[in-house]
Amino acid sequence: MKRVLVVIAALALSLVTSVPAFAEEDESSYYLGLGDSVAFGYTPRQVTPPSNYLNAANFVGYPEMVAKALELTDNNASCSGEATGGFISRTSSNDNGCQTGYRLVYPLHVAYSTSQLDYAVAFLNAHRHSTKLVTINLGANDVFHLQTICGGAATACFVAGLPAVIATMQANLGQIFAALRATGYKHKIVALTYYALVYDLAGAQGAALLNTPMINAAGPYNVRIASGFDAFKPLALLHGGSSCAAGLIIALPAGGCDVHPTPLGHALLAAAVLHAVGEDD
Fold first, then answer.
1. Beta-bridge partners for 224
2. 22 or 13, greater pLDDT
3. Domains defined for the chain, CATH in brackets
4. Phi first, then psi: what are they for 190, rounded to 5°?
5. In terms of DSSP bridges, do strands 257-261 and 249-251 run parallel, antiparallel, or are they unpaired?
6. Adjacent-strand bridge partners of 30
7. Is the pLDDT higher at 138 or at 20?
8. In a 10 Å sphere around its CB, with 0-12 CB exposed, 13-18 middle and 19+ buried, how is residue 45 labelled?
9. With b meaning 16 or more CB within 10 Å and e meaning fewer, what string describes 206-238?
């Protein structure tokens, strides 16, 4: 089993270091990364020195790996705690800590004062032809926000509120994709879906709940899907279905794991994005 793990990890790392650059790539070719803490490369406080949060360059996620592999200039606009509503408007109540917490204290990878969507639209208007790739992962914080409001997932409040949250996620994601395409940007957009923490029936159902709004919203706007769920699955299944035991999400000193990816997890997500970029080319 250990040998298989090493082989799969090596393949993932080779994918993110050996993919050829775009044919038109030059000094002015850009990659725009959008999303939440997964795209940001966030690591939790239990394993991160406080000073690290003062420099966003200390956090490396799959967008940095993708940009390096494709030899594109990286513009990672993601924000930890970003939900779909906050992505669209900084005054939205649909936020899980990006607008009301992280951005007020710590720097992002790129500096901007607007919403993430307004930044993306402005960026694409300015670099419509030289931006070769846009990626996005978004939506989990909508559900986490509801969970916080309700005091947990095992509550009547959460169960009753979940259908409306999922519907809002899909509507917001559709609005986001429409706005990106309305700039006249015609190159590739890749939406990365979420992985499961545990690959059992409940984990698969939970991931499907989070990922279906993204998949449904992507179709009308020629947005390709990169499956984060499939990216983690083979290694997790080699470890009883556990992404934690497989080393794909961050281990905590007190035991168990955080929900955010390790460098290996990010490499697998980057490989999934690169696979989606290369499809049908």
1. 190
2. 13
3. 29-278 (3.40.50.1110)
4. -120, 125
5. antiparallel
6. 73, 131
7. 138
8. exposed
9. bbebbbebbbebbeebebbbbbbbebbbebbeb
Write the pLDDT tens digit of every residue in 237-259: 999 999 999 999 999 999 999 99
Q: Which residues contact 139 (CB under 8 A, 6 or more apart)?
A: 83, 84, 169, 173, 194, 210, 211, 213, 214
Measure the CA angle with vertex 109, ends 16 and 113; round to 5°. 145
Distance CA 243, CA 250 (A): 9
Tokens for 216, please give them. Answer: 């449904």
DSSP structure string for 212-252:
HHHHHHHGGGTEEEE-HHHHHHHHHHTTTTBTTTTT-EEEP
Q: Pairing state of beta strands 30-35 and 73-76?
A: parallel
Band of residue 18 on the pLDDT scale cut at 50, 70, 90: very low
Query: What angle is formed at CA 71 by the lines to CA 226 and CA 55, rounded to 5 degrees?
Result: 85
DSSP string, 35-57: ESHHHHT---GGGS-GGGGG-GG
Q: Give the contacts of 226 (CB within 8 A, at least 6 positions apart).
A: 135, 190, 191, 192, 193, 269, 272, 273, 275, 276
CA–CA separation, 256 vs 26, rounded Å? 44
Question: For the chain, what percent of residues have pLDDT higher than 90?
Answer: 89
- Answer whether 116's CB lies under 8 Å from 39's CB: no
| Half-sphere exposure (Cβ direction) of 185: Cα atoms closer than 13 Å | 30
Q: Taking all residues of the chain, what is their mean pLDDT, rounded to a whole number?
A: 92
pLDDT tens digit sequence for 52-73: 999 999 999 999 999 999 999 9
Contact 166, 215 (CB under 8 A): no
Structure tokens, 4: 């298989």
Amino acid identity for residue 276 in this structure: A
